[in-house]
Amino acid sequence: MLQKAMAVLELFSPVRREIGVVEAAELLHKPKSTVSRWLAAIADAGLLERDPHSGRYRLSMRLAVLGEIARDSTGMQRLAHPYLEKITAETGETSSLTVMVRSEAMNIDAVLSPRPIIHVGWVGRRFPCYATASGKVLLAWRDSATVKRLVARRLPKLASRTITSMDDFQHELARVRDHGYSTAWRELEDELAAVAAPVRDHTGEVVAAIAISAPVSRVPIKALASLARVAVDAAESLSSQMGYRGVQLAEL
After folding, report:
1. What is the pTM of this model?
2. Where are the domains of the chain?
């Protein structure tokens, strides 16, 4: 039941704060009757609340409290936050810590730019991996079969420079590995520029990405490499704090 509950809870986001049985069933590709039982059971456990008028479900205050405790105590987020603050103070741009959730990249922490015009990378926001700097980093060090499983066969064009071919995307991931960082300029949105660098755990596995995002008006394409250096420095420092020593433990 725990896996079922997580599948349901992951449907909620800052843009989907409530959900009905029919919508949840469609998103989960499950029968309506099955999902209705899941939602009722999760509500009985105190993790969801059901609106008595609309019948729609929302996250409970109990879960919100637990989420705040988890956010404050989660090791990687706690370690990463000072680096995000430093990045934003240094660059004036939004910084974020992103992980893979199923087949999407999701922000689990962020520090927003203080400037009037910014990219809003709120916590909990999810992105398609093929069109984002963070997603490229999270996929670049995975094998080809895993990448094909996680990325849809069709890559819809989202902006003027979106990669729409799987072969081109695989070549892009090779470039990410060669450079040690990724870039995305007018790939998710025409006004968005971003860079990202890999965060590794003690085994050498890429477990997260540190990203910097900004309007293209402030970050021309030729400036991406210098901005990426800031992300790389932060990601390498965070990786070191998480026990990464530049080689995988199996090679020692």
Report:
1. 0.72
2. 2-65, 74-251
What CA–CA distance (Å, rounded) separates 190 from 192?
6
Domain 2-65 fold is Arc Repressor Mutant, subunit A (1.10.10)
**Pair 144, 174: CB distance under 8 Å:** no
What single-letter amino acid sits at 146?
T
At 41, give phi and psi (nearest 5°).
Answer: -65, -40
Confidence class for position 186, pLDDT limits 50, 70, 90:
very high
Q: What are phi and psi of 193, to 5 degrees?
A: -120, 145
Quick check: 205 and 184 in contact, CB under 8 A?
Answer: no
Strands 57-59 and 48-50: antiparallel
**Per-residue pLDDT tens digits for 128-178:** 999 999 999 999 999 988 998 888 778 999 999 999 999 999 999 999 999
The domains spanning 2-65 and 74-251 adopt the same CATH topology: no
- Looking at residue 195, its amino acid is V
The total number of residues written for the chain in this structure: 252
Q: Please, what CATH class does the domain formed by 74-251 belong to?
A: alpha beta
What is the SS3 string spanning the chain? CHHHHHHHHCCCECCECEECHHHHHHHHCCCHHHHHHHHHHHHHCCCEEECCCCCCEEECHHHHHHHHHHHHHCHHHHHHHHHHHHHHHHHCCEEEEEEEECCEEEEEEEECCCCCCCCCCCCCCEEEHHHCHHHHHHHHCCCHHHHHHHCCCCCCCCCCCCCCCHHHHHHHHHHHHHHCCEEEECCCCCCEEEEEEEEECCCCCEEEEEEEEEECCCCCHHHHHHHHHHHHHHHHHHHHHCCCCCCCHHHC
